Amino acid sequence: MNASISRILLTPDEMAAADAAAASSGIDSYGLMERAGQAAAASALRHFPGASRFVALCGPGNNGGDGYVAARALAASGAPTAVFALGDTAKLRGDAARAFANCSLDAEPLSDYAPQPGDVVIDAIFGAGLSRDVPTEVEDVIARVDAANVPIVAVDLPSGLCGRRGTPLGASFRAARTVTFMTRKPGHLLLPGRKLCGEVEVFDIGIPHRVIHSVAGRLVENGPERWADAFPHAGLETHKFKRGHLVVFSGGRTATGAARLSAMAGLRTGAGLVTIASPPEAVAVNANALTAVMLHGIDDLAALKHWLTDSRLSGFVLGPGFGVGERARQFALALAARPLVLDADGITSFRDQPELLFSRNDGGTGSLVLTPHEGEFARLFPDIAATDMAGKVEKAIAAAERANAIVVYKGADTVIAAPDGRAAINANAPPWLATAGSGDVLAGIIGGLLAQGMPAFEAACAGVYLHGQAGQRAGVGLTAEDLPRHVLPLYQPALAQ
C-alpha cells in the first residue's frame, strides 16, 4: 500500500463514494470487481493450500459479485469450489450480475450450506455495506459455520459486522482473514471488529489515490507519520529549561503512587524537569521514593495560584490519585490557561458539574486533554455514551466538541479525538497493558509532551502510541511500576517500525 493512504480509514459511505467517483472518472467498475475477487481468491489459496473445498457464500450486491469472481478464480486454479447464494440470482444487477454470469459454477441456496470438514469459506455476503441486523437465514448460516469451526476468508468485512462501529449487527462471522481494498474501515480496528476480522490484508485494486484522498474524512489509524513532525527532539543546544517543566499533582500521603508513575513517565518522555506538587503531609512520603523528580508543597488554591506566576511551568497532570471533590475542581479551573492532562479523579470530580469543565477553555490559551476510560466517559458524557447508533469514534468526536478539549477515549481500541473533527484509532496496545496504574503512566507521557510544547492533539496521539510501544517492550506480566522505564521518546528507529 502507498504510505500516503496506508493509515487512512474510510467509512462504508466514504468507500462507496470512492467507488462512485472512480466510475465517474472513467474507471471500469467491473474491472475493480475482478481485481477484488481475484485478490480474495489469491489470499485463500496462499493461506489455505490444504483446503478440501472452497465455499463461496455470495450476497445480492457487489460484495456477492466479488465472491463470484473469487469462486471462478478458485475453480480455475483446480481447487474444488462450491457457491451458495443469498436470494434469487436472477435478480442480480450490474456488475454483480456480470460476475455471476461469468462464473460457470451453479449457485445453491445459502440456507442449504452444511459445512464439511476441510471447507474454507469465502464470505462475500454483505461486506461493509450492511446497516441493519442480518436476516435470520444468514444468522443461521453464521451459527452453523461457527459451530463447525471452519476457517473463513472475509471479503471486505465479515458479514454482519458494522464497518463504521466495529460491532455485530445481530450476528457476525468470525474470520481467520479479511481481504479489504484500498483502505481499511473503522470496523477493522474498533473492537470487537478487530477480533472478528482476524488478519487483515489491504489490496490496491486500482482506485486512484487522489480519489481516496478526495472522499476521506479526518479519521486515521494512529501512527508516527501523523505526528512525528511535531514531536519534540533535543538538539545540541538544548538544556533542561528548554525541554519543558511538567507538574504532576499528588494526592495525600496514602495516595502518592499514581502521581509518581505519571511523573516518571513524563521524565522518560523527555521533559527537562518534572515536579510533583504535593500536599504538605505527603511531601516526605514522595521524597523517600524520588530522586530525579522534584517536589513542591501545595496546600491550597491560593498557594497554587501564587506558584502559577512562574511561567516556566509548561505542562500539568491532575487526577491520578488526587482525590475527588471541590479541591480537584478548583485546581483544574485555576489551570485554564495552561496545558493540562485531566485524568482519573480529576475527570470524576466534574461528573455533577461538567459545564464548569467544558467552559474552561472558552477564550483561554490552554490545551486540555481528557483521558477517560469507559466508566469515566459515561460519567462526564452520559447522553453521548448512551447513544446506541453512534460508534466509539463518533462518541469521542462529539465529546471533544462539547468539552472543547482533546478526548482520549481509552480502551484496547483507544480513540483520540479533537473538537475540529480529527480522530485517530490506536491499535498498537498489547492486552497486558490493562493493569492498574497503566493509565497514570499514559497521563504522564502526554503531559511530558505537552510540557515540551507539542500541540495537544498530536501530543495525545503520540502519547497513546508510545504507551503502546512501552507495553510491547515490557512484555507479558508487566506491572505499572515496570512501565515507565520502558517509555522512550520517538527516535528514528521507532519511526521506522
Automatic annotation (TrEMBL):
Q: Which reaction does it catalyse?
A: (6S)-NADHX + ADP = AMP + phosphate + NADH + H(+); (6R)-NADPHX = (6S)-NADPHX; (6S)-NADPHX + ADP = AMP + phosphate + NADPH + H(+); (6R)-NADHX = (6S)-NADHX
- Give every YjeF C-terminal domain span: 223-494
Q: What is this protein called?
A: Bifunctional NAD(P)H-hydrate repair enzyme
Instruction: Return one Gene Ontology term, BP aspect.
Output: metabolite repair
Q: Which residues bind K(+)?
A: N63, D123, S159
The positions annotated for binding (6S)-NADPHX are 62-66, 127-133, 156, 258, 321, 373, 440
Q: What family does the entry list?
A: In the C-terminal section; belongs to the NnrD/CARKD family.
Its domain of life? Bacteria
Question: What residue stretches are annotated with the YjeF N-terminal domain?
Answer: 15-213
Q: What is its EC number?
A: 4.2.1.136, 5.1.99.6
Q: Report which gene this protein is encoded by.
A: nnrD
- Cofactor remark: Binds 1 potassium ion per subunit.
Identify the Pfam families for this entry. Carb_kinase, YjeF_N
Cofactors that this protein relies on: K(+); Mg(2+)
**Main function:** Bifunctional enzyme that catalyzes the epimerization of the S- and R-forms of NAD(P)HX and the dehydration of the S-form of NAD(P)HX at the expense of ADP, which is converted to AMP. This allows the repair of both epimers of NAD(P)HX, a damaged form of NAD(P)H that is a result of enzymatic or heat-dependent hydration.
Matching SUPFAM superfamilies, A to Z?
Ribokinase-like, YjeF N-terminal domain-like
Example GO molecular function:
metal ion binding
Per UniProt, where does AMP bind? K410, G411, A412, D413, T414, G439
Under the subunit heading, UniProt states: Homotetramer.
